[in-house]
Specification:
By secondary structure, the chain is mainly β. It has one helix and 16 strands. It has a 16-stranded mixed β-sheet that branches.
């Protein structure tokens, strides 16, 4: 009954007829219908079905699911199995493909492929492939690879990172190019600057470290702090200032 009511409402709004995405003469492996509007309570109680593309507006009371979504996305939990382009305002935003635009998640934002834009999360932001843009979350920002600005309690990149990180803890499992500002900054390889209470480069780097404790294994540059350690320097441990060139 609820599903029937939703279909009648959609038809009354002039969105009952789908726009077919296939162009004349093109070969498409799978055919999906494209709709201007999606309305629903919780998948599968929604119109259209989750395998459809949305070009315009998606609203769900609890949980909505679609393939590609372009436009405005409102509700509690929004799931996109393809790509998302536009503005998403949900408690949880979940995109399995690429994201281009802005995600505002009261709790959580997650993108399974590449992101280009802004993620504003009430708790956590995640991108599992590559993020380009700005991330803000009070707790954790996580990226497989990162270019841009991260602001959060914990900013964590698994692969190459480039840009600015500002948080309590900034961690890079691979290379980082740019500035890290936080209480604790840790990078596998650093090319830039670290400013904090404790700054650590576990392998190699080139740049400047400013903090109470600065430590690097193979490092070219300067350290300013109470205790400075450079594994390959002529004097590995010095107070106040240490350097290697």
């Amino acid at each position: 009954m609820k599903k029937t009511s939703l279909f009648i409402l959609a038809a009354a709004m002039g969105v009952g007829a789908p726009l077919f995405a296939a162009e004349s003469g093109s070969v498409i492996a799978e055919s999906r219908s494209t709709w201007y509007v999606q309305l629903g309570i919780a998948d599968p109680v929604q119109v259209p079905v989750s395998d459809s593309n949305i070009l315009g507006f998606r609203w769900n009371f609890f949980h909505g699911a679609s393939h590609d979504v372009t436009g405005l996305d409102l509700g509690l939990v929004g799931c996109t199995s393809g790509d998302f382009k536009g503005l998403a305002l949900e408690a949880v935003n979940w995109v399995e493909g690429d994201m281009r635009g802005v995600q505002f998640g009261l709790l959580f934002n997650s993108v399974g492929a590449a992101s280009y834009g802004v993620q504003l999360g009430g708790l956590v932001n995640c991108d599992w492939v590559n993020f380009t843009g700005v991330q803000f979350a009070p707790f954790v920002n996580y990226d497989a690879a990162f270019t841009g600005v991260q602001l959060g309690a914990v900013n964590w990149s698994k692969n190459l990172g480039t840009g600015l990180k500002f948080g309590l803890v900034n961690a890079d499992e691979n290379e980082f190019h740019g500035w890290e500002v936080g209480l604790v900054n840790c990078a596998d390889q650093l090319f830039g600057a670290q400013i904090g209470i404790a700054n650590v480069v576990t392998k190699s780097g080139r740049g400047v470290q400013v903090g109470l404790i600065n430590a690097a294994d193979m490092y070219t540059g300067l350290q300013f702090g109470l205790l400075n350690l450079i594994g390959n320097a002529p004097l590995p441990v010095l107070p106040i200032v240490n350097g290697n060139f």
